[in-house]
């Protein structure tokens, strides 16, 4: 982890879409949960907050997908960058609470959503719903995302372009 800290200023632990059912069905983990008087949800929060502490101790800025903001925003470190992906409305709420935000709304900026035309990608505004200029400054940018379920090396270029360029 410390070697990585010399290369990057941001740290994300990819805690999106975490399914915790297996935690309560795995004897060793269930035992740990019981010993610590935690539910699976408590353990998820514990993991995220500990990862944030480690990231900050290494000089990183923690970046968390919006699930953490939606589940326990009041416990997140104020240095957290909230990475929006599920839909509109998260960036305005995040910056309203003083967090920085990255816009990656899956409805428009997920490139594996092949039904979204480039015109919709182009017209999408990461600052939508944020009227206050000081809060607008907390939106540090946007990111198009491409996941591998719908593309491989044979079609990745034509899947990404021109919609990625439209977001830029």
From TrEMBL:
Q: Tell me which residues make up the Glycoside hydrolase family 20 catalytic domain.
A: 17-168
Residues of the active site are 17
The keyword Ribosomal protein is assigned to this record: no
Catalyses: Hydrolysis of terminal non-reducing N-acetyl-D-hexosamine residues in N-acetyl-beta-D-hexosaminides
One Pfam short name: Glyco_hydro_20
The GO biological-process annotations, alphabetized, read as: carbohydrate metabolic process; glycosaminoglycan metabolic process
Q: What is this protein called?
A: beta-N-acetylhexosaminidase
């Amino acid at each position: 982890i410390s070697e990585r800290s010399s290369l990057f200023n941001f740290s994300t632990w990819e805690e999106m879409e975490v399914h915790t059912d297996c935690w309560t069905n795995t004897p060793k983990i269930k035992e740990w949960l019981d010993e610590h008087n935690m539910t699976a949800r408590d353990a998820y929060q514990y993991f995220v907050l500990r990862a944030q502490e480690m990231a900050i101790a290494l000089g990183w800025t923690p970046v968390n997908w919006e699930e953490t903001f939606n589940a326990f925003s009041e416990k997140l470190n104020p240095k957290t960058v909230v990475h929006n992906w599920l839909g509109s409305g998260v960036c305005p709420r995040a910056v309203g609470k003083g967090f920085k935000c990255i816009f990656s709304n899956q409805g428009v900026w997920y490139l594996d959503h092949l039904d979204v035309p480039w015109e919709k990608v182009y017209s999408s505004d990461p600052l939508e719903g944020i009227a206050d200029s000081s809060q607008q400054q907390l939106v540090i940018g946007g990111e198009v995302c491409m996941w591998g379920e719908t593309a491989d090396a044979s079609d990745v270029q034509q899947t990404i372009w021109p919609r990625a360029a439209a977001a830029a």
